[in-house]
Each structure stands twice: as C-alpha cells, then as structure tokens.
Amino acid sequence: MANALDLKHFMKFLLRRFYLIMSFVLVAAGIAAVFSFFILKPVYEAQTQILVNQNNKGIENMSWSYLESELQLINTYNVIIKSPAILTKVIDELKLPLTTEELSKQITITNENKSKVINIKVEDDNPEQAVIMANKIAEVFQKEIPSLMSINNINILSKAKLSDDPKPIKPNKLLNISIAAVLGFMMGIGIALLIEMFDSTIKSEKDVEEILDLPIIGIISTIESPKEVGDNKR
C-alpha cells in the first residue's frame, strides 16, 4: 500500500513539473541534434583483408603446436601492421599530413578466432581516402614483411572498395539524440526534485491535508468590499 502511495505521489510530482522536465529533454535533444548534424564530421570506414598462407605442406606439419605457433605469428603481424616501419612508408607514399601515431588511431586490426585472415579497417572523414589508405597499408605490409621477418606468406585476400553510396559509421545521430534525451530527462527530474525539496509554500487546501495530515473543515473565501459589490451591480 505504501509503495502504491509513493508511486501516486511521484506521478503527481511528475505532472506538476512536467513542463520543466520536458524543457530539459528538448534542450538536451536539440543540442545533441545540432552537434550530430552540423558540427561532428561523419566518419567512414574501409576494410581490406589479408591472408596468412600455410608455408609448410603436408599433413604431418598440421600439429596442434604448429597451428598455435602460426596463430601467435598472426598476432605479431597485427602489431607490425600498425608499427612505424609500415605506417611511415604509407604516409610517405600517400603524402599524408599525419604522424604515425595519428594514422595508427585510425586503424583497427582484427581477426576471427583461430583464423588466418586479418582484417584491416581504416576510418576517415573522406570515404575515398579511407579506401586508399586501407589498400596502401595492405600493399606496404605485404611488400615489407619478407625483409622484416624473412618470410613471404602474405596474400591480399580482398581490397577495400568505394561503394556508390558510402554510409558513415559515425556519428550515430539517432543514438546520440536518444542518449541526450534520456540524460535531459534525468537532469530535469533531478532539478525538479531540488525545487520540490526547497519549495515550502502551501498552494492549496490539498497541500494542507498532505502536510498536516488533517482534514479541511472550512475555506475562507475572498470577501468583497461594499464598493466592489456596488460596482459589480452596475
């Protein structure tokens, strides 16, 4: 019963402060919309794949320890791809206005569990530039890995391609606006609660009943003066 009363009071509180709370929701969602549509640059992603070939032939070489060592080698490749040894050449060949650290932040290297396929993903605000950089990283890595590790077992499985209608992966405008609206709602409730806590004024007879827990016996109405009564009759 107490929970039902608390919920009832909370709903009354929300109704009383509805416009205040909604103003915070609308302002927060509006700010997020402005940032998402007009300020934040769209970010596009391009992906290329490289395949680590099996060097040794024969079933006898396909032992568990051999496969484990080869997968560890793939982890080494993941590090080398984002190393200055590769990225410096990519920057020089493409004449990019970036440092190796800046370019590294735009690159994501992934591979499926127990897979010899390495995915190279590159993010950029220019979709065509993202495709060019992804392909160039794969090409430079394939060319440089023999001299770096004295092995030649890298093939480019698929190149990045520019689609006819590239879609940005960031920002997620709808998600940003939704999160901002929720935060605005929470902030609105918080501000409304603070106002409610410090507001000690009694606005109606219902407030008297709730605060004093006493029934209202009578109400004093406004008494008009004789002059006002005469004016009303005229």
Automatic annotation (TrEMBL):
<keyword id="KW-0472">Membrane</keyword>
<protein>
    <submittedName>
        <fullName>Capsular polysaccharide biosynthesis protein</fullName>
    </submittedName>
</protein>
<feature type="domain" description="Polysaccharide chain length determinant N-terminal">
    <location>
        <begin position="4"/>
        <end position="94"/>
    </location>
</feature>
<dbReference type="InterPro" id="IPR003856">
    <property type="entry name" value="LPS_length_determ_N"/>
</dbReference>
<keyword id="KW-0812">Transmembrane</keyword>
<dbReference type="GO" id="GO:0005886">
    <property type="term" value="C:plasma membrane"/>
</dbReference>
<dbReference type="InterPro" id="IPR050445">
    <property type="entry name" value="Bact_polysacc_biosynth/exp"/>
</dbReference>
<dbReference type="Pfam" id="PF02706">
    <property type="entry name" value="Wzz"/>
</dbReference>
<feature type="domain" description="Tyrosine-protein kinase G-rich">
    <location>
        <begin position="143"/>
        <end position="194"/>
    </location>
</feature>
<dbReference type="Pfam" id="PF13807">
    <property type="entry name" value="GNVR"/>
</dbReference>
<keyword id="KW-1133">Transmembrane helix</keyword>
<feature type="transmembrane region" description="Helical">
    <location>
        <begin position="18"/>
        <end position="40"/>
    </location>
</feature>
<dbReference type="InterPro" id="IPR032807">
    <property type="entry name" value="GNVR"/>
</dbReference>
<feature type="transmembrane region" description="Helical">
    <location>
        <begin position="174"/>
        <end position="195"/>
    </location>
</feature>
<keyword id="KW-1003">Cell membrane</keyword>
<dbReference type="GO" id="GO:0004713">
    <property type="term" value="F:protein tyrosine kinase activity"/>
</dbReference>
<comment type="similarity">
    <text>Belongs to the CpsC/CapA family.</text>
</comment>
